[in-house]
Write a structure and sequence with these properties.
By secondary structure, the chain is an all-beta fold. It has no helices and ten strands. It is 0% helix and 46% strand. A six-stranded antiparallel sheet has the order 1-10-9-4-3-2, with no helix packed on it. A four-stranded antiparallel sheet has the order 5-6-7-8, with no helix packed on it. The structure holds FE2/S2 (inorganic) cluster (FES).
Length: 108
């Protein structure tokens, strides 16, 4: 049986207006540093600390669905967290996200 999580299992992280298309919005929730990314109107949630060292990817460069680390230029697909090029080798953690009204919620 496929059970959908209820909204109560999600944590509000920001408003839709905080994340215009083509931007990354950093949020800290429950000790987790993640970012909400808007790819042409589709939102996703992903860890924002690079898995290579500790650069904050929300200060990097977003082109389509790829973020480039500002420190050593690894690229990650923010939809899946997968690494696109070295030196990073470990993927980013991604999170389920839903929008209710004008608010954005993430399942931690
Ligand atoms: S800290 Fe991101 S690639 Fe090195």
């Amino acid at each position: 049986m496929n059970v959908q999580p209820t909204l109560s299992e999600y944590v509000k992280v920001c408003e839709l207006s905080d994340v215009p298309p083509g931007t990354m919005h950093p949020v800290d929730v429950a000790g987790i540093r993640l970012m909400i990314v808007n790819i042409e109107g589709t939102l996703c949630a992903v860890d924002r600390i690079c898995t290579h060292e500790t650069a904050d990817l929300s200060t990097g460069f977003l082109i389509d669905s790829e973020v480039t680390c500002p420190l050593h230029l690894s690229r990650f697909d923010v939809r899946t967290g997968t690494v696109q090029n070295p030196p990073a080798t470990m993927p980013l953690r991604t999170y389920k996200l839903r929008v209710e009204g004008t608010s954005v919620y993430v399942q931690l």
